[in-house]
Amino acid sequence: MYVGIDDTDSADGMCTTYICSVIIDELKYFGFNVIGYPRLIRLNPFVRFKTRGNGALSFKLNVKGNGEVQKVKDIVLKKIEELSRLNDERTSPGVVFYSGEITDSLQSYSLNIIRNIISIDEAEDFAKDIGAEFFKFKKGRGIIGALAAIGCPNTDKTYELLAYRMPENYGKKRLIDYDSVFKMNNSTYPDTFDNVDGDNSYIAIEPHTPCPILYGIRGESPEAVLNANEMIKVCEPVEKIAVFQTNQHTDMHLVKAGDISKMERYKCYIIDGTVKDYPFTFEGGHVIFILSDRSGEIHCAAYEPTKEFRDIIRKLAPGDRLRVYGSIGERGTLNIEKINIIELAEIYKTENPLCRCGKRMKSAGSGKGYKCVKCGTKLRNGVKDSVEVERDLETGFYEVPPSARRHLSKPIVRMNRKL
Ligand code: ZN
Question: Is the peptide bond before 210 cis (omega within 30 degrees of 0)?
Fold first, then answer.
């Protein structure tokens, strides 16, 4: 039996992962056998009514007979009612129970939810088709993601360990020993990743919302995140920890666009193209350039929060061939998550002619050619040289820092990992 849960949290606190983990503890207390790790599935980052990270949860358990099935439903629904932020107008929980096979069509449904946006009615119709039972609280928008969390393929996956705070500390400053985080990162990266920012000035495991999470460690395996957790020192009690299998850091939200002209707003893409003009820095520090292909062109943006990543974007030049990974927001601009520079264009600048003595000549005045200030040579009909400019940039992958990264974005350190 699979259980899927979504949209129980709110912007001012609580968190669906926490509710899920409380439910699993309760089920275990009543003797139920929860199989494997619960799953935290991130959905389309553009869902309009998203609460915070837009993640849905699911888990699998062994049940025998209708009595046990009913008992599981009772426990799950009671806890959702108890712990959900039902008074938050945007919170709209949904729970799905499903006892069938994870079919291709269920997997396709999940990928569709991760990449597109559908209505509650469409999700309900699909749930009825496959014989899944759903429970809606308020509008029950959560059933869309709850079903997606059950059916999400795990061809690529990572793990996240979450440490939860004592309720009396919610909203207070988190007391994490930052030195221990740097040490943990040094000895466990790249089996764990996104612990600290590239320039080591920022701790990325710590959330900045009043939620129950003290910190989260992302990694390649349950062993990696559990081992890393042993190295973290904190100066406040940890209520409990939970490990989730997740589609975070897998690029599952991205689809290959093919042509720029076919790209749509509120979707996430991988697109190849050529830089059309020199990047431009706008007020607020946002850097924009135009990417083009045979079919059209699109503005690509590295916004201010992407920090030092903008320095790379500023070095791009017309003719550079790129593969861009990103999402198209409300304004139709492609918000860059990472780029792969396939080929750098040769850039030339014009300079005054070189004198036979080796010195660059000076203009002798309008229409009078050039003269050498060193040896006095004059060149009445001299023409300007075209000189290749050395590029201060290399081909390959560049990504935004962890602080600006989407949950679903695959870090470069994972790009060449075998699945
Ligand atoms: Zn000279």
Answer: no
- CA 371 to ligand 1 centroid distance, Å: 8
Q: What angle do CA 393, 331, 401 make, to 5 degrees?
A: 40
Q: How far is the CA of 374 from the centre of ligand 1 (A)?
A: 5
State the distance from the centre of ligand 1 to the C-alpha of 363, rounded, in angstroms.
13
* Nearest one of 353, 350, 343 to 391, comparing CA atoms: 343
241 touches 228 (CB < 8 A): no
360 CA distance to ligand 1 centroid (A)? 8
Reported as a single tens digit per residue, the pLDDT across 314-356 is 999 999 999 999 999 989 999 999 999 999 999 999 999 999 9
pLDDT band of 12, cuts 50, 70, 90: low
Closest CA to 47 of 307, 297, 408: 408
CA distance readout (Å), 47 to 68, 224, 336, 345: 35, 32, 18, 38
Burial 150-170 (b: 16+ CB within 10 A, else e): bbbbeeebbbbbbbbbeeebe
d(CA 237, CA 241): 11
Query: What is the Å distance from ligand 1's center to 351 Cα?
Result: 15
Q: Which residues fall within 8 angstroms of residue 386, CB to CB, at 6 or more apart?
A: 348, 349, 350
DSSP string, 156-172: S-EEEEEEEE-GGGTTS
According to DSSP, the residues that pair with 162 across neighbouring strands are: 216, 242
- The predicted model scores a pTM of 0.90
Rounded to the nearest whole angstrom, what is the distance from the C-alpha of residue 391 to the centroid of ligand 1?
29
**230/397 Cα distance (integer angstroms):** 32
Structure tokens of 370? 């050039």
Give distance in angstroms: CA of 64 to centre of ligand 1. Answer: 95
Annotate 198-215 with DSSP letters as a single string.
Answer: TTS-SBSSS--SSSSEEE
pLDDT digits 0-9 by tens, 31-40:
999 999 999 9
Q: Is residue 75 within 8 Å of 23, Cβ to Cβ?
A: yes
